[in-house]
Structures are given as C-alpha cells and as structure tokens.
Amino acid sequence: EADPQTGVDNTPYFAHGVYREIHVNADIAIAQWQYYLASGDKDWLKKDGWPVIRGIAEFWASRVTYDKAHDRYRILHVTSPDEAYDDVPDDSFTNAAAQKALRIAV
Questions:
Q1: Cβ neighbours of residue 69 closer than 8 Å, sequence gap 6 or more
Q2: pLDDT at site 32
Q3: How far does the chain reach from its first CA to its final CA, in angstroms?
Q4: C-alpha to C-alpha distances, 104 to 6, 17, 42, 87, nearest whole angstrom
Q5: Which regions of the chain are under pLDDT 70?
Q6: Which of 57, 69, 65 is nearest to 89 (CA)?
Q7: Looking at 1, 21, 58, 83, which residue is catalytic?
Q8: What is the structure's pLDDT at 15?
Q9: Would you tell me how many other CB atoms lie within 10 Å of the CB of residue 80?
C-alpha cells in the first residue's frame, strides 16, 4: 500500500498477509495492456507500458515453483483477493492473473 501523493510505502505493520498479496502485480501489468489496447498508443507502450509489463513478467518467472512430481508450476504462499484466505497455494485468481500477465508479455 502506498501513499497516493508520494508513492511511499505506508503499509500498516499489523496488516497480516499484505506482503503476499502479489496478485496486484498481475493486475498492474494487465492494466498497462488494457490502456494500450484502448489508446492504441504504441509510443506509450514502448516507453512506459512495456517496461512495467516486462518487469512484472520477470517477477512472475522468478516467483513460480516447479513441482517435478506433478510436472507443473505453482505459486505458493499468496493472499487471495478475498483477504480472509492468507498463505494459500495456487490461489485461482492469482494463478489466472499471473498467467494472463505472462501471456501479455510474450
């Protein structure tokens, strides 16, 4: 959570699980792509949108865990958008959003 004026992190210390709410990263990449689709502004995409999309794709690539026994990738220890569910493996929203963000980057 950031101050809307300064961008400085002001996450309350008591906000349990907030550092696992990584689904927001995918939302940001998807929003960059949707802005490009709505505006058609290739210059903006190249200069501003793409670096964000690429960085978030790199984050997801570093965050997944390969499960050799089941031949699949997993995203562990996340907080669902429904914050009552904390530290869950393979949250469906998080996995779907991460997949979409990665597909946008490719």
A1: none
A2: 98
A3: 28
A4: 29, 27, 15, 26
A5: 1-3, 10-19
A6: 65
A7: 83
A8: 64
A9: 18
Question: In the structure encoding, which two tokens stand for residue 18, read together?
Answer: 């907030």
Neighbouring C-beta atoms of residue 67, cutoff 10 Å: 13
- pLDDT at residue 20, rounded to an integer: 77
- Coarse DSSP helix, strand, coil percentages of the chain, rounded to the nearest 5 percent: 55, 10, 35
> Looking at residue 14, what is its pLDDT?
62
Q: Is 21 assigned a catalytic role? A: no
Q: Which two tokens stand for residue 48?
A: 């501003």
User: Where are the chain's structural domains?
Assistant: 18-105
Token pair recorded at residue 64: 């997944």
CB distance 104 to 53 below 8 Å:
yes
Write the DSSP assignment of 29-45 as a string of letters: HHHHHHHHHHH--HHHI
Which helix (DSSP H) or strand (DSSP E) does residue 15 occupy?
none
Residue 75 neighbours by CB distance under 10 Å: 20
